[in-house]
Amino acid sequence: MKYIKLRELEVSRIGLGAMGMSHGYTDSGTDEAESIRTLHRALELGVTFIDTAEIYGPYTNEELLGRALKGRRDQVVLASKFGMISHAGAGPWNLDSSPANIRTAVEGSLKRLGTDHIDLYYQHRVDPNTPIEETAGAVAELVAEGKVRAFGLSEAGPDTIRRAHAVHPVTAVQSEYSLWTRGLEERVRPVLRELNIGLVPFAPLGHGFLTGKIRSTDDFKEGDFRYGNPRFTGENFQRNLRLADEVQAIAAEAGATPAQVALAWLLAQGDDIAPIPGTKRVHRVEENTAADGIELTAEQLDKLSSLPPAAGETHTEAGRQMLER
Ligand SMILES: NC(=O)c1ccc[n+]([C@@H]2O[C@H](COP(=O)([O-])OP(=O)(O)OC[C@H]3O[C@@H](n4cnc5c(N)ncnc54)[C@H](OP(=O)(O)O)[C@@H]3O)[C@@H](O)[C@H]2O)c1
């Protein structure tokens, strides 16, 4: 495993997204023992960068990590997120990045994670009701108190990134970025490069789609992120299958799996990028972390970069409204 720096924070080149162990997919939360084995195997393989959020569950994903990382806390760069739960009463899925809400959120996350500090603490979505300067100021206080080491944003647009960074350095922006979701390349990426802010692509496997393993959407249950998602519905889904086939063809040529190709393409986009593929299975964490060693040719990278755009938006309308691009 190689390691890179997101600004001052050293992380494994490939991290592990823990969300799906508890939340977001049809079979999330069904096998805690395998999830814990997956986390431990990831650490053995040199993965140090583990991603969660208070909204995952809510709460149960952080609790799972607290149990799994007992006695191993020092081996990981632990990232969590605030701002998707309003602790003032409105509850989950209500944006609140006010300083008072962040204070409450961090205490809960620290307790659940069983730690006295979070290495990278992201605002999960930009809160239109709280100036980003106030949010950044609140995180800066947590940094000064030692409860947080570094500040991150998620799905923030260029202006918000600049304003936040002017108050407290932003270490990383975590946003959706993969072969079929490239919207941040034009406006966000140049700002990250200019300000020396790392990029953490979430859903680097396109919520599993780019692995080629999803050929039908029939089994997605309500509550699965992909259920009713425009890219995983009807004609869009059928058209997108061709994209997955292209990735599969390049994988066959490269002697790799499609998941590894999707990750290797991301790694080739810069050494300031640390994707966090999500899995709750040991054999897949082994497969995904091995992408670090896959070298694609210039021609293969070109082909992948020239794939046609995905059919359909990344999110349903409600989810889309929370994105700032
Ligand atoms: N900031 C945000 O707003 C945000 C949003 C979404 C996610 N995230 C973070 O990003 C992480 C990753 O995103 P994600 O989980 O949404 O999407 P992803 O990493 O693109 O894909 C995960 C899905 O792919 C499957 N999968 C993983 N490796 C595979 C392989 N080698 N072959 C076949 N299938 C494979 C997983 O199933 P199994 O688990 O069954 O293997 C899961 O269903 C999350 O865990 C979370 O920490 C952040």
Describe the model:
Its EC number is 1.1.1.-. The chain has 325 residues and is α/β, with parallel strands linked by helices. The chain has one domain: Alpha-Beta Barrel (TIM Barrel). Helix content is 39%, strand content 15%. It is built from twelve helices and eleven strands. The strands form three sheets. The chain has a seven-stranded parallel sheet, with helices on one face. Strands 1-2 form a two-stranded antiparallel ribbon. A hairpin with a 4-residue loop joins β6 and β7.
Produce the secondary structure layout.
Layout: E1 3-6, E2 9-12, E3 16-17, H1 19-22, H2 32-44, E4 49-51, H3 60-68, E5 77-82, E6 85-86, E7 91-92, H4 99-113, E8 118-123, H5 132-144, E9 148-154, H6 158-167, E10 170-176, H7 184-195, E11 198-202, H8 234-254, H9 258-267, H10 282-289, H11 298-305, H12 317-320
Helix pairs in contact: 2-3, 2-10, 3-4, 4-5, 5-6, 6-7, 8-9
Residues 17-20, 25, 51, 124, 154-155, 174, 202-208, 211, 213, 259, 276-281, 284, 287-288 line the site of NADP nicotinamide-adenine-dinucleotide phosphate.
GO molecular function: oxidoreductase activity
Organism: Streptomyces ochraceiscleroticus
Enzyme class: oxidoreductase
